[in-house]
Amino acid sequence: MTIQQMRYFLAVIYAGSVSKAARQMYTTQSTVSVAIQNIESEFGFEIFKRSSSGIDLTERGASLAVEVKRILQQVDMLNAKYADHTEQRMEFSVATQHHMPGIDALCRLIREHMHIEERYSVNFSEMRTTEVLDAVSTGKYDVGILFLIPDSKNFLIHKLRLTGTVFNHIAYKPIHVYLRQGHPLAGGSVVYEEDLKNYPRVFYDRDIDTDTIFTDALQRYSSRAINVNDRAAAYMMLQELDAFILGSGYRTSSERQGGILAIPVADCGTWEVGYLLKSKVEDSLLTREFLALFQEELERD
């Protein structure tokens, strides 16, 4: 089925007749009729029931119409995005684990550079570790931001070699817990792993597909576990249940204003922080500018 045949098909549905659809599409009735016949011949079933009172979709025709409409919507979106060859839209994407820096740097990049562009598309997505690897290795995202426990680095390097992706070290930073302001453990400059045993621990996307080898830093088993998949739900748990989240220790400007604290865990070791790039692909100007702003963000904390 061609795109034009799809358009004739939907036109007949909306118009209620072949003749009216032909007039609306500025073509002949025979052209639309042949298009419908070709569709029916190709798929081997009738898409319209014809009678003296008009035409109606068959059950399978109605099902086909849903799929055709979805495809044409995608085609129209592509046309809207790429049809204007005189203007190019600037695009940039960052994939990161939860509770990693990067969003403030991306906001600065937009304010300082991309605000002069009339057309741009920016993506910032928090993902599981393996999803960050996939996002960069497949070229869907320009940069990936990761933190990991040092013991897992060899395993990470092995995975990256298989995907043509390179991990670039930036710094080692203490492992932190995120707590609400006013949490019973919020008063000290550090907390200890033993202190956390009586409080619920919030995990992100902890399921069979999660590579916990990269980020499982606490040795103590968490008997009270809450699994979430977004930051808003995690912060609700922090505020309502005195829960905690293990993370990089970096806070966005909004987290600082919202009373979310990040306190080092004294006996828990460090994270290695770095970024992923696709190997053998030249860094873009936007990538270099973002990484410079990102490292400033790291140094701020």
Written overview of the protein:
The protein has 301 residues and is of the alpha/beta class. The chain is built from ten helices and twelve strands. The chain has helices at 3-15, 18-24, 29-43, 59-82, 103-112, 129-137, 153-163, 231-241, 253-257, 285-300, and strands spanning 48-51, 54-57, 90-97, 120-127, 143-148, 165-174, 176-180, 201-204, 225-228, 244-247, 260-264, 270-278. The strands form three sheets. It has a five-stranded mixed β-sheet with strand order 4-3-5-12-6, with helices on both faces. The chain has a five-stranded mixed β-sheet with strand order 9-8-10-7-11. A two-stranded antiparallel sheet has the order 1-2. Strand 1 (48-51) and strand 2 (54-57) form a beta hairpin. The model has no long low-confidence stretch (mean pLDDT 83).
Query: In angstroms, what is the radius of gyration?
Result: 27 Å
- The portion of residues assigned to helices is 40-55%
In spatial order, strands of the major sheet run: 4-3-5-12-6
Number of DSSP strand runs: 12
Summarize the biggest pleated sheet: 5 strands, mixed
- Taken in chain order, the helices and strands follow as HHHEEHEHEHEHEEEEHEHEEH
From the spread of the alpha carbons, the general shape counts as elongated
DSSP helical segment count: 10
Oligomer state equals single chain
Poorly predicted sequence stretches spanning 5 or more consecutive residues: none
Distance between the termini: 57 Å
